[in-house]
Amino acid sequence: MALRTPDEYRAGLRDGRSLYYRGKPVDDLSSVPELQVAVDHAAIDFELAEDPAHRDLAVVVDPDSGAESSAFYRIPRSADDLLARCRLIEATTGAGGTVVTLIKEIGTDAMFALMRKLAGEERERAEAFWRHCRDGDLAVAVAQTDAKGNRSVGPNEQEDPDLYVRIVDQSDEGIVVRGAKCHTTSSANADELIVLPTRAMGPDDADYAVAFAIPIATDGLSLYVSAYSGREHNEFEFPVSSRHKLLETLTVFDDVFVPWERVFCFRQPELAGPLALTFVEYHRFTAVSYKLPLLDAFVGTAALITEMNGVAKAGHIRDKLTRLVTYSETVRALTEAAALRGRVDGDIAYPDPMTTNMAKFTFATGYYEAVEWLQDCAGGLLVTGPSGDDWDSPEVRAVLEKYFRAAAPAEARLRVMNLISDLTARDLGGYHAVLAVHAEGSIEAEKMQILRAYDSDRAISYSRRLAGLD
Amino acid sequence: MALRTPDEYRAGLRDGRSLYYRGKPVDDLSSVPELQVAVDHAAIDFELAEDPAHRDLAVVVDPDSGAESSAFYRIPRSADDLLARCRLIEATTGAGGTVVTLIKEIGTDAMFALMRKLAGEERERAEAFWRHCRDGDLAVAVAQTDAKGNRSVGPNEQEDPDLYVRIVDQSDEGIVVRGAKCHTTSSANADELIVLPTRAMGPDDADYAVAFAIPIATDGLSLYVSAYSGREHNEFEFPVSSRHKLLETLTVFDDVFVPWERVFCFRQPELAGPLALTFVEYHRFTAVSYKLPLLDAFVGTAALITEMNGVAKAGHIRDKLTRLVTYSETVRALTEAAALRGRVDGDIAYPDPMTTNMAKFTFATGYYEAVEWLQDCAGGLLVTGPSGDDWDSPEVRAVLEKYFRAAAPAEARLRVMNLISDLTARDLGGYHAVLAVHAEGSIEAEKMQILRAYDSDRAISYSRRLAGLD
Amino acid sequence: MALRTPDEYRAGLRDGRSLYYRGKPVDDLSSVPELQVAVDHAAIDFELAEDPAHRDLAVVVDPDSGAESSAFYRIPRSADDLLARCRLIEATTGAGGTVVTLIKEIGTDAMFALMRKLAGEERERAEAFWRHCRDGDLAVAVAQTDAKGNRSVGPNEQEDPDLYVRIVDQSDEGIVVRGAKCHTTSSANADELIVLPTRAMGPDDADYAVAFAIPIATDGLSLYVSAYSGREHNEFEFPVSSRHKLLETLTVFDDVFVPWERVFCFRQPELAGPLALTFVEYHRFTAVSYKLPLLDAFVGTAALITEMNGVAKAGHIRDKLTRLVTYSETVRALTEAAALRGRVDGDIAYPDPMTTNMAKFTFATGYYEAVEWLQDCAGGLLVTGPSGDDWDSPEVRAVLEKYFRAAAPAEARLRVMNLISDLTARDLGGYHAVLAVHAEGSIEAEKMQILRAYDSDRAISYSRRLAGLD
Amino acid sequence: MALRTPDEYRAGLRDGRSLYYRGKPVDDLSSVPELQVAVDHAAIDFELAEDPAHRDLAVVVDPDSGAESSAFYRIPRSADDLLARCRLIEATTGAGGTVVTLIKEIGTDAMFALMRKLAGEERERAEAFWRHCRDGDLAVAVAQTDAKGNRSVGPNEQEDPDLYVRIVDQSDEGIVVRGAKCHTTSSANADELIVLPTRAMGPDDADYAVAFAIPIATDGLSLYVSAYSGREHNEFEFPVSSRHKLLETLTVFDDVFVPWERVFCFRQPELAGPLALTFVEYHRFTAVSYKLPLLDAFVGTAALITEMNGVAKAGHIRDKLTRLVTYSETVRALTEAAALRGRVDGDIAYPDPMTTNMAKFTFATGYYEAVEWLQDCAGGLLVTGPSGDDWDSPEVRAVLEKYFRAAAPAEARLRVMNLISDLTARDLGGYHAVLAVHAEGSIEAEKMQILRAYDSDRAISYSRRLAGLD
Q: Which of A241, C368, D85, D122 is 20 to 30 A from B145 (CA-CA)?
């Protein structure tokens, strides 16, 4: 059990995995600049553990052996542990320039869920896998969302039976699975992959009720990396996305063999829903934790750019700043409350589901309006400004310096403008927005969970008493 | 130092105070039925202290003397004390049918503010007054909002100098004040009145920089009670407002003498703003605490009536229920967070100003939409239903029972319908709504405080780092 | 064929009808003050026809005979006719103090729908009834919404079969009906009552597929008048509701006989949905037409009170005024567009359904926020102000005049304040709000109609072309 | 006077103009692929005039001479002319894939404003310039927004006097100007440039009160083209932005000489505000006209993708579709109403300012929420989907076809998904969003104009009557 260095992490990715990018197989992530950006971004997780400023948050030392492990792998036992996990995720994402690293967050979300919902031998397998990952300081992705096909019918009713990942064979050694998962984040640059069911299932869906874990470099597993935002980004124009990036894959299982010790759920449809739900309970808490740096960046850039434009004192600007603060800080307060209201199930703590979902719902439903306020504060220069090449040309830069100064020098103003543009008005902006609505569960899913988790006794009995019914 | 009984409280109000109602002087509140409703409503405060179920929350026992006093008078020393105060206010208001009693809440808000902001002799006077009220278990109102006249100019620029309460004379014994305060809640049924400045003031406003306390039965002090919602209410039609009511007065000071030991601020304009602000810091926390039962009633009645109408499973109804839950529980979570983030100033704790104002702002700006959802859930019967007299007529009741049954018997359904109507679609509904926007400070005032109290360092320094400026 | 005078209308209501109010039978509407207010309010319709300023709008002169009839009875043949009808409804409601008179609007909405959807003998009966009403200058109510019982099941599945109005017998002379309708507006003070189905029906609902018309004074028909807002209102405090009021009834059919010439739909379930829908097409256009004076009053009172308070120039006030204007004028523009886009079906014109529903939806979903803006502009005095009795007392009035003046004298300011309070924060306010959401169809019903009426061809074919699919 | 062909337009741009792109001078737009996309996009204007399907809309034939000219140059004389102009702009932008061509729209907006506001010799100069452009079938850009510097102070108070374009010299032949304008759309690919003041000015700003027109190829005029979204776009991934693009420039006047016959406003500060305002009156009408295809694309792609995903019947999806329809069709109805309410000033018609601004305000303030609804309807694949290179690889395409099919084949679904992504979640999406808020005037400017243009007489006099004041 030891922490890995960033370079050890990078080296581990050269393992023969089957990757495709822009129509071609990729042998080595470092051969494609934008993929390398994603690897370097993920390596921040390992850098933080080495950073004295973050060690206390990021590293757990075993009191007996003195062995060190990543704090992401610490099983939460209390509200305080949940709060510490929130702070760790916030700090890591902050170092990631508002982009979560997601190579340990999501994997441990899944492991905690598996440990809570499984029993007997399956639970032992899950714990063994958790120890394996913790002791190897591994990067772990989770594939949950299936290809799904026609959303109006379930897994076993699709014309093509492979549209949800399913068991196609079994033997004394293990099982064989086929199908595909979508939107799998960080799989291309992870070491291991956990596969979970995406929804509740009925008896006819038994073939689809499967959960397991495999190394990324497994025969039959192919990752098709999305090219969204896949291009080289000039640092002046794209201060964040030039250095920070996630990779999503279409994750195809072409008769992949999984040994029994890595199988957590096998043809138990009644377990599919609870596993899916328990995972997202943790994962939505991870989500709201990692959104906090982005929200800080919204408030901070709005404050900076309005000051630099010379409009910070205007009434309507102050109104927008106040609304940005209220939005951002309400998400933060609800996230903290979700941790503080955390409860313990057996020996594992989990954040309060209603409060977690309210935090996520508040974030998601307020996001687009917050973008509007921020862009309104900044100005049209977000999409009409100069490029990094312009800035690098001494002749052009002189013109820009003369004409883009305001209540601040042109350079500072353009850098903040580009930051806002990068975060909200270009590819990364679209990515952040679509994630707000779709990642870690849809708005509709969050609404369903809020209502389900809300304990209506107090409100109903009080109302009955007021109405004179009790 | 001893607790008073409800009847002792009622008896104390017969003290020769100068009250006017509907154009006529009122010698005894009990002579006018709707005023008596307000007195009985306020008496709930004293009933709760006698109720074994609430004693722990409502009564403080001096560990040395064993003397008992109202928990409202406990000076908060910690976040836990603030949370306990929140629970006490919530419980009292719950017993008050969503209507706060406000005979100790607001007074102690003012006393805590005075004790925090005053020094020297003035602080001693404030403490003496606090002991006097606590030991006498008194009911205390606060008059803050002045008549104000033309809002585009300040106190000293009004055509009539009396539109803000001002000092017109002074002597060795004390001062003489003249003017009027508006919207003074519970003054008609309180024992004492605290007077505070309503806003920040400049050097020219020195005459208006005054704070003091007097008994309601003081020469020259006249209370003109508002007749809003002033009529007898049938219990079937008005389940809440038939039993619960607040009184507001135009509070006129016609050369009222105040002895020096009751004067807290005398011609110190620089103290006016801080006193006003510190008071509303506490008072907005009181406000969000007392809104919680109303929010519970919104959620609970929406759940009940949709079940009774047979529409609880419809998608759009579930959507509205979820939004009501999220609105209500976000205010609750922010209120709790305001207490938990409480800080100590000297030896007195206060709730976090930013979080308190966010809770109030969230409550106020979401209120009308919440009313819409609830009324949408209930149906048009809210304003077309039968009266209590109809229900009391056996002949008519038989018709109503036949035709107003749905997925519940007619009586239960009509009682819940009337409750919703009372809370949202009649006088009490209008009162709750206008209070949401105007009481304890306007929406604009809350916005200003959010921005002022927000510590922007984290967000700005993070944004500067992302932009490459630091 | 001749116009009736207001007094002829009043006299016609003394016809032995069976009315109940507050648990007791009422022989004569004029014996109960608040019922008399409603009759006098409805009489405005007849007053307008006599008023030279409105004659052109309100009266149609037969070019051949010179006979005069109410313009409400003019069958629309063109977009211009629809626009003229909109103006007439707006003018009548304006004279009604923001409260529609609804004694000819809704009846003609129903007649136009019957004439459009019926054929053969039934259409002749509908036309004969229309001529009867027009020539007699009659007041006509429409009962559509059934008692409904448990909303999760249909008419024929209710435990009590009478919860929707149904045919219980038939003979050569006519039919016999039993059941009850709710929320029937103006029935207590109308001459005739049209009964329409409330929803689409299936073959099993044949007994419930019935439409007909009867005089109010018909054996077995009993009207139970709602007491909502039923009290005497002081004119100073309640400038509108002291003079303007609608009556709603629970309308009970206790084996009522209807002769064949008054039966429009008899056991034709396939006709129930189209009749219901065609009626609301007209009726929602009536609705948005009669909302315009209320919207003007919102904008006008907001402008007046902010001027009087001395805050009209504040940035946030201008923001709220602008939003009120935009809300109000968007409803107006959509209402006009609904008329201008009117189409002709056979020989009867009807407003564009999508645009009509968008106007109604915009009105309904924006209403509560508009109330918030207006109340925010006005101030807390809306619910803490003095009564008419206070104003009538010379002693008290002197105090009010001194202390409630602002940038305007106290009287003008208090009158505008009371107007806003009456329109938004008391019984009439609750009535207007609940009507916004529930009257003339719910928000959900409007949404369904918008989507159904929207012609998606342009948008879809354009999108397919852009996507390279066509 | 004759129409030009697309190639004549392209050839005209090779005139020695001074362009910079990505830090380097550009001699020929066609040498840079993304600039060529913009030129080809603009050429759509000329293609439409040749297209039989659009000739009636796009071409005006002089009844006397038979000479043809672009319909953009037709001076509106009536509401019908305004409506025809709206239709022309909508059709051109529709052909432009939701991106306005803007090489005649904005220029004529400015010319109509100049002709309305100028008198005497200046008006003759404006008319001569209009004839020159019309007869030459020229492309004309407008530079209005100055560099502005510190927004908290005006033109003459900036530290650098050149931050607003100003007159630095004059002679018998003409004037010399210096400074810079921002966000100048289509200047890089136009023939002529009109320069207008950006705001109201005072006497001290006389040097800045200047309006004129010059050819793009004028000595001292340099255009620095923004590189936003400047890259080659694969057609499969970027169905719109691969073919449609606008160019914005920082437009620098380095002591540019303007002959008197091209000077429209010379040191007349009192004319600056009216010119700026009258221009935006026309230009906001242009704006809402050209937004209509984008709104259609929102509704159409939402309908297509939900059908293809198999979720079109879900309640929450229908809710979002309905809201998209209502948003889109409200903007359309207001735009039509702005034309139909058009008025004539002298002999030139203009759209109703209040209604135009309401249309623009409704568009701008609803835009981000509409994006949310559309992205919510579509799914996360918007930002995790495959690239054009993936699609072009037979091996990968087979996998995509298997796993991305839903209720439609993978290809159709991916094409619609990419269309939505292009319009909302990538560079063009950010461009559309920022334009919604900032182009043709800010939201605050629109609000100011709504309130200014609203005729409050009806509402105020009605409210006074209701309050008993008149």
A: C368
Distance from C-alpha of D182 to C-alpha of D251, rounded to nearest angstrom:
6
In this structure, the number of other CB atoms found within 10 A of the CB of residue A51 comes to 15
The per-residue pLDDT for range C227-237, each reduced to its tens digit, is: 999 988 999 99
Burial (CB < 10 A; 0-12, 13-18, 19+), residue C55, is middle
Q: Tell me how crowded residue D188 is: count the other CB atoms within 10 A of its CB.
A: 28
Q: How far is CA D342 from the centre of its chain?
A: 21
Q: Degrees (nearest 5) of the Cα angle B41, B46, B47?
A: 80
- Give the predicted TM-score (pTM) of the model: 0.97
Round to whole Å and give the CA distance between A151 and A160: 13
Instruction: Quick: pLDDT tens for A95-153.
Output: 999 999 999 999 999 999 999 999 999 999 999 999 999 999 999 999 999 999 999 99
In sequence order, what DSSP letters do the residues of C167-186 get, joined into one string? EEEE-SSEEEEEEEEEEEET
Q: Do B466 and A240 touch (CB under 8 A)?
A: yes
The per-residue pLDDT for D232 is 87
Angle CA D305–D309–D313, to nearest 5: 90
pLDDT tens for each residue of D273-283: 999 999 999 99
- C-alpha neighbours within 13 Å on the C-beta side of residue B30: 9
Question: Is the CB of residue C299 less than 8 Å away from at least one CB of chain D?
Answer: yes
Task: Work out the minimum CA distance from B293 to partner chain A, whole angstroms.
Answer: 8
Neighbours of chain C (3+ CB pairs under 8 A): A, B, D
> Mean per-residue pLDDT for B131-137?
98
Return the partners of chain D (3 or more C-beta pairs < 8 Å).
A, B, C
Q: What is the DSSP string of B443-468?
A: HHHHHHHHHHH---HHHHHHHHHHTT
DSSP classification of residue C76:
P
Answer whether A23 sits within 8 Å of D403, measured CB to CB: no
Mean predicted lDDT score pLDDT of chain D: 97
Residues in a beta bridge with C24: C21
Asked if B420 and B414 touch (Cβ cutoff 8 Å), the reply is no
3-state helix, strand, coil in chain A (%, to 5): 55, 15, 30
Is 70 exceeded by the pLDDT of residue C1? no
* Average pLDDT for chain B: 97
3 state SS for B380-435: HHHCCCCCHHHHHCHHHHHHHHHHCCCCCCHHHHHHHHHHHHHHHCCHHHHHHHHH
Q: Which residues of D touch C326 (CB under 8 A)?
A: 358, 361-362, 450
Confidence label for D1 from pLDDT (cuts 50, 70 and 90): low
Residues of C in contact with D418 (CB under 8 A): 467
Residues 311 to 350 of C: which have CB under 8 A from any B CB? Answer: 311, 313, 316
| B412 interfaces chain C, CB cutoff of 8 Å | no
Token digits of residue A55: 């060690």
d(CA B237, CA B421): 8
Question: What one-letter code names the amino acid at D36?
Answer: Q
Residue pair A391/A397 in contact by the 8 Å Cβ criterion: yes
Question: Tokens at residue C395, please?
Answer: 């002693």
ipTM of the complex: 0.98
Q: Does D304 touch chain C (CB under 8 A)?
A: yes
Contact B256, B218 (CB under 8 A): yes
CA dist., res. A16 & res. C202, Å (int): 65
Q: Which helix (H) or strand (E) holds C435?
A: helix C427-438
- What's the half-sphere exposure (Cβ side, CA atoms, 13 Å) at A127? 12
Determine the average pLDDT of the residues in C341-346: 96
The token duo for A13 is: 């990715």
Task: Give the C-alpha distances (Å, rounded to integers) separating A412 from A400, B195, B462.
Answer: 12, 50, 15
